[in-house]
Structure formats: structure tokens, C-alpha cells
Amino acid sequence: MVTILDNLEAAAQSLSVSAGRGVGPADSPWGDRTMKKKAFKRPARARAKTLVRTGDPLLAPIKGADQRTVGGVRIDIVRAGNGRIKRLVYPPGFRWSSHMKPLVGTTLCMHAHVGLLARGHIRGEYADGCVFEFVAPRAVVVEPGHDAWVVGDQGAVLIQFDAEDETARHFGLPEEHRHLHA
Questions:
Q1: What's the whole-model pTM score?
Q2: pLDDT tens digits, residue range 156-167?
Q3: Fewer CB within 10 A of the end CB, N or C, for the chain?
Q4: Which domains does the chain have, with CATH numbers?
């Protein structure tokens, strides 16, 4: 007596043989060009959504951002009125004097930084020996004329607001670090 299970097994075997699986090239009606199952690939839009959902949202791509890497720092820039919003991703071991100084050509970083340290730990020093240190989450204001570095083995992510060369003036900061008590 033939059961339904026997019929299903026979049908499966028939499909397997007709698709060229389980038979040699000589037995296949297509010769040695046996059919192969094509891998299912989701559309790019669906893959991107999955990356954002499963990845770190703080590092996810920013729509419309100008992206670049300078001295090992990943920078995403979005224009906002006459200013910019930047996401700077500093890798572990980054130090301005080691990684940026050769590219910029100044002894110290002469850019003001105003923003939010969203991840990581940074430390820095001004030319006069004053030091600063920030551990996320923390608002950050760093005057021009500093060296800074990432502390520990985790990178740092800074969300920065700037006005390009006018950042210090725009935010009411001195053009270079100075003591308030001097």
C-alpha cells in the first residue's frame, strides 16, 4: 500500500533528478550545466535598514552628510544654516600631535571644539600646561591651541557644532587658550 509519505518522497526525488541534483553530468539533460540554486539577495534598501537596526546607531550613516577620513578620524559633516554639524569618530590610540599635526602643519590644533562627547574618553593639554579631560556623555568646549588624545581602548565620538574658521568667534571663545585669572 502506497502512503502519502511515499508519494511525497517520490515527488521530491523526481524534482531533485529533474533539477540536475543527485545525478552526474552524463545523466543530466543539461550536460554538465546543472541548475544551481541562486542565493536570495535582499534589495539594497532592505540591507541598509537592517544594518542601521542591528548596528550601532551612533555610527550609522547620516543621510546627506559629506563624509571623509582625515588622519584616521572619520568625519561626517552636515550643513546647518551658516554653520555645520559634525560627527567625529576618533579611533583608539588617536592623538592630534601624532596623526593630524603632520597634515595640518601647526604645532597645536587651532580649531575650537564645541559639542557633545557622546562616547569615549578624551584628554588634552594647552601650550601653557593647562589640561582638560572629558568622559562621555559630556558637553565639550575646547579652545584653540591644544593637543588632545583618546584615552583607553575605546574610540571617541564627538558631535560638534562649528562655524568653520569662525567657530571661536561665533561661540565667544578666545582665538587661543588663555587663563581667565592672568
A1: 0.67
A2: 999 999 988 788
A3: N
A4: 56-170 (2.60.120.10)
